[in-house]
Amino acid sequence: MTQFPQLDGFHGAPGLVRLIGHRGARGVMPENTIEGFEFTVRSGVVALEFDVVLTRDHIPVVTHNHHLLNAATRGTDGKWLQGEELKVSALPLSQLQSYDVGGLDGRTVYGQRFPDQVFMSNVRVPTLGDLLDMALKPQGAEMLFLLEMKSDPETAHIPEMTERLVSEVVKAVRVRGLEQRTVLHSFDWNLLEICGRIAPDMPRSFLTIMPKNADDPGEDSSKSVAPDFASMDVPVSQAVVEAGGHMWCPHYLDVTPEVVSQAHELGLLVTTWTVNEVDDLHRMVDAGVDGIVTDYPGRAQRVLLERGLVWNEGPDQMVAE
Amino acid sequence: MTQFPQLDGFHGAPGLVRLIGHRGARGVMPENTIEGFEFTVRSGVVALEFDVVLTRDHIPVVTHNHHLLNAATRGTDGKWLQGEELKVSALPLSQLQSYDVGGLDGRTVYGQRFPDQVFMSNVRVPTLGDLLDMALKPQGAEMLFLLEMKSDPETAHIPEMTERLVSEVVKAVRVRGLEQRTVLHSFDWNLLEICGRIAPDMPRSFLTIMPKNADDPGEDSSKSVAPDFASMDVPVSQAVVEAGGHMWCPHYLDVTPEVVSQAHELGLLVTTWTVNEVDDLHRMVDAGVDGIVTDYPGRAQRVLLERGLVWNEGPDQMVAE
Fold first, then answer.
1. ipTM, 2 decimals?
2. Lowest CB count within 10 Å: A52, A122, B13, B76, which one?
3. What is the domain-level CATH number for residue B257?
4. How far is residue B263's CA from residue B240's CA, in Å, rounded to a whole number?
């Protein structure tokens, strides 16, 4: 793994389980916002998982779905967006950033999933550049990026569209010299193949969710761009290795000690998502994963500490005795 | 109330219930730390309730108990303090600030009360000056202080000791010109009488908890410095008015709609503490309090918004529609 030093930061070890902030810290702060990323890094969780799509003017921005969630988006009048949800790829950056994404509408199913999330105003969808710039400041010196690229199911069959997304993302990383702090991450194995071709200087992470596990409410489905796992004749981890992957990111309901050790034998890192409940956090630690993606970094830290585990190396990492 | 403009920021109104961050945001961030106060203010909850005691060298510092909680304090070796808890008034500031107060020991009863609190390292007990300085920066322009002074039960009978605490606190506020953003707050009515004498330029808030409601684990008892409410022949709110109070801060289990409206008729503001559960938050809103002190600002914001209420005035306050 020494080819890619950033993978050290996702590597578990005896006494060490990595934590990765999901969209920052969605349980506490508005997701995929600079405000949330700053909170997470300041909490000592320096690896961030987040989502990138392109605007109409081909600017990579950090937001999860291809459409702005009405449940999380207010207009310039301060009111929740209504009706058909706006497609990010149809909006120029200037319009996208006129919306306020600092809070959740608690009357919606999505809003009710995160009842402790703070409610802020005048918060904007960040560009990928805004987020990457954090890593160039002293307080971001340890930051690592698990950078998910979202293939649009409507255009995933057009290679040029996917290549454009990858090339804009790779350009934003390279222009800042952050190739050794970034892992390229997707559900779309075609997209990851393109990454291997145009960005062999960065490792690749393969997201998976088995068909039996449903998507959570309020999330764009990724299944339409993912392979048909049910018809594979090898274990998924084997398929990830054959596709050139360095990391495997299974949904936590798909994780067992057996699949983790199988993946480890194949030389893969195993990072699981999105693990928010205390019992599930314990189960993932028991299964031997390298890293855990969570909306609740504080909760996950505390679970690790109670087991005598840490999430970072280094002199600042104080261990409960 | 125009005599004290800061009271406007604690005043409820139709559609408006004030939120006050308890020790910052103890449910999320280490209590009584600059890191926690910054989180709370950034979340849009600009009124902070916190606790002040004096070090051996008479420096007002922000920490709750007269003794450092072993469950929240690590030494320079990174290990939890053990044995008899250290008394803050016996430590010079330099020694006090050698300890790390960035996390909780989850094996303790106190630690288990806040299982989502993030675990940070190299976090120090702030001086009162450090906290007040935040209000002089642009991002602290709206901050308000509900500044609790903790009388030491061991020395509360010595007027000079109490006066020293008050005068050091008042000096720190005045030297920064923050008299109009501070409310002086205590369980100790003798201390509040001293405040009225030496700081008549600041309003006073009277904390109460009825004898039937036990102290929570890990908190210094304040009952020994508080009046004997059971033997009073007038309602507590009446006694607060007679003692010169501007605000009454009853424990939330002591709050009913009747006592709130009685206090309002007497011209008092009513701010209740420490309200963390959704049901209790609703009950306090129903009771008609002006403000709610909470360890979970995000949760409290969300409860208000679901009822069509807000916690701040001003153009940035977006109302769910």
1. 0.93
2. B76
3. 3.20.20.190
4. 9
